[in-house]
Design goal:
heterodimer, A: 265 residues, alpha/beta, Rossmann fold, 8 helices, globular, B: 378 residues, alpha+beta, Butyryl-Coa Dehydrogenase, subunit A, domain 1, Butyryl-CoA Dehydrogenase, subunit A, domain 2, four-stranded mixed sheet, four-stranded antiparallel sheet, 10 strands
């Protein structure tokens, strides 16, 4: 079977600081990492590969340096890596990104399963995975915390705050992974040494605008239906007060008076 | 001359650092306190291929050289010196088989100890043969198709856990060091048992034991190399082992320096963080200078060994310097922590205890001065 894993290179937000004047992220000198949830997505694909005859293709959209994240994915055990990269793709929101990635997935073709991370730590939208599934017109199960491959279908435990759903789906399908799904493996020393060579670096396919069948009005900054109006750090203000009193009865009396004055009781 | 890490080496460092942070750090205190061998961590190191570094892939190893080994051992030593020691010393057995073993021994043992999860140990020291390794009393007598081993080894790292031990014994007592030979003894061989388990000051999770051979019969084919070459093989193995100790030592120093820097920025006295006091800033400058120097000297020795050049002098200098640095840096890092440094709530007192062994094992500092002065004076 063929599994496609979408992953994003993100700044390590543990290391990121905010420019207090502009409200934007200071990205200079911040190390880039594979988005944590995407690591879980990749691990799940690799686990399937450990036990089945499966091929794992990793796909990323981003600037040329996103190859670093793909190389790491190859060192973890992925078989093939594709970077989708073009100036025209810059500034894409989730709709535009999903449009481009869905087109790339169609071009790869022959897939049985697409696994994405739940959300990226630099955006927290959790939209790209579900949108890709919509564009590809395949079933999707989000927030997967457990996944079993049955004969020709998939059984997924979907996490929600109200309880888990056990969902079965036909293949091909798209899953979004949460961190409870698994523990990502470390790349082995042997794999690192095999992967970090010029040959492997050159084997990473780079697809530009001309390689994909996408509607130019649907991609990039101009094709994005959403725009960031403003980003800012919320000001934390302390509006609480502590009710003092000699004993519980007195404190309760004071609190009743305050609530009554506010017309809350 | 190139003193920069390659992309591959940077990635190995990143993975080893993440491994140390996620799998090693939180266990360090517990396994030190209760002297617990970290079996799970060892198995995880096997899975990552750390145990197979320096063993070619055709023998089931990870490939790579001493450079990759130094990267991994030092990163782990930053968080737990005992775990780093276990990894580093385990590797000596495989290296000795790779260098001196027969083809049969290589095919049999290397895949098992490289990334197969089996453990190796190296048994040279005896009660009266420490720095004077030629005074080994353990005897091996050829009897038909077997050798009969009799004697007692002491202070053997990992001897209790090891599946295979390389044992040095005399096959001809009249010849002194030229009568020494090396043998592979497998766990469970009749006549081979574990004696005293030492209660140590530091690296307490790395078990140190006595090994007893009482009419222990081992097949002739377990002789490594040829009779009488044991001492030379031991010395060549120790050159590599010393690079491992240097890596542990500068790793411990790096770990202690990181702790000191973190604490100096957080700890406020006299109304400002203690990092703003020049007296302590100068400590940091001295610690950083010695640590960097120890690190790059170790990589110099590792790189000579990786390219197959003679490295006896450089390995000895790296080990002597890095171990003294580890003692110096851990002591100052503890001092910077004041009373807190003396308490077991902080890792400094453990680091001080762990650092001390690096000046003693795989040859004391004094023996290293003998090795270095001989190499320099000729």
């Amino acid at each position: 079977m063929k599994i496609i894993v979408c992953l994003k290179q993100v700044p390590d937000t543990n290391e990121v600081k905010i420019d207090q004047k502009t409200g934007t992220l200071i990205r200079d000198g911040v190390p880039s990492i594979i988005n944590p949830d995407d690591r879980n997505a990749l691990e799940e694909a690799l686990k399937i590969k450990d036990e089945n005859d499966a091929e794992v293709v990793v796909l990323s959209m981003g600037p040329p340096q996103a190859k670093e994240a793909l190389k790491e994915a190859l060192a973890m055990g992925a078989d093939e890596a594709i970077l989708v990269s073009a100036r025209e793709f810059g500034g894409s929101d989730t709709w535009a990104t999903a449009t481009i990635l869905a087109s790339a997935i169609e071009k790869i073709g022959g897939f049985d399963l697409v696994i994405c991370g739940r959300q990226a730590i630099d955006g927290d939208t959790a939209q790209v995975g579900p949108e890709i599934a919509e564009f590809l017109d395949i079933p999707q199960v989000t927030y997967a915390k457990d996944l079993k491959l049955l004969k020709d279908k998939l059984q997924v435990r979907r996490f929600t705050e109200y309880g888990d759903y056990l969902i079965e789906s036909e293949l091909p399908a798209l899953i979004t992974a949460i961190k409870e799904l698994n523990t990502p493996r470390y790349p082995t020393i042997e794999n690192i040494m095999r992967t970090y060579t010029k040959e492997v670096e050159n084997s990473i396919k780079v697809w530009g605008l001309e390689d994909l069948d996408v509607d130019l009005t649907q991609i990039g900054l101009k094709g994005s239906p959403t725009n960031v109006y403003k980003s800012f750090v919320p000001v934390k203000s302390n509006n609480s007060s502590i009710i003092e009193g000699a004993d519980a009865k007195e404190k309760a009396g004071t609190m009743t008076r305050i609530l009554s004055e506010l017309n809350l009781i | 001359m190139n003193l920069n890490f390659s992309e591959t080496e940077k990635m190995i460092q990143k993975v080893a650092r993440e491994f140390a942070e996620n799998e090693v750090k939180d266990l360090a205190e517990l396994i030190d306190r209760d002297s617990i061998f970290p079996e799970d961590t060892f198995n995880k190191m096997v899975k990552c291929g750390f145990t197979g570094i320096g063993i070619p892939t055709e023998y089931g190893g990870s490939g790579g050289t001493d450079i990759e080994k130094v990267i991994v051992v030092s990163e782990i030593a930053k968080k737990c010196a005992a775990t780093a020691a276990i990894l580093s010393i385990h590797g000596i057995f495989g290296q000795a088989i790779l260098k001196f073993g027969t083809d049969e021994q290589k095919s049999k043992y290397l895949p098992l100890v490289a990334n197969g999860g089996k453990k190796g140990a190296f048994a040279l020291t005896e009660a009266n043969a420490g720095s004077d390794a030629g005074a080994v009393k353990t005897r091996a007598v050829l009897d038909g198709d077997n050798y009969i081993l009799n004697g007692t080894k002491c202070f053997i790292t990992g001897g209790g856990q090891a599946d295979y031990v390389m044992v040095f014994a005399s096959t001809d007592t009249s010849k002194g060091i030229r009568g020494l030979s090396a043998f592979v003894v497998e766990k469970g061989t009749p006549g081979f048992s574990i004696g005293k388990i030492e209660d140590k000051m530091g690296i307490r999770a790395s078990e140190t034991v006595e090994l007893i051979f009482d009419n222990c019969v081992i097949p002739k084919e377990n002789l490594v190399g040829v009779e009488g070459k044991g001492f030379k093989m031991a010395m060549i193995s120790l050159d590599g082992a010393r690079i491992g100790v240097a890596a542990q030592a500068f790793g411990i120093a790096e770990g202690a320096l990181e702790e000191a820097v973190k604490y100096m920025k957080e700890r406020v006295q006299f109304g400002s963080p203690i990092a703003s006091f020049q007296g302590l800033q100068w400590y940091i400058a001295e610690m950083a200078t010695k640590t960097e120097t120890a690190k790059w000297m170790t990589y110099r020795a590792a790189s000579l060994r990786a390219s197959g050049e003679n490295h006896t002098k450089e390995a000895a200098i790296a080990k002597l310097n890095a171990s003294e640095t580890a003692r110096f840096v851990t002591n100052l890092a503890l001092q910077i922590h004041g009373g807190y440094g003396y308490m077991k709530d902080y890792p400094l007192e453990r680091m001080v205890r762990d650092a001390k062994i690096t000046e003693i094992y795989e040859g004391t500092s004094e023996i290293h001065k003998v090795v270095i002065s001989r190499a320099v004076l000729g």
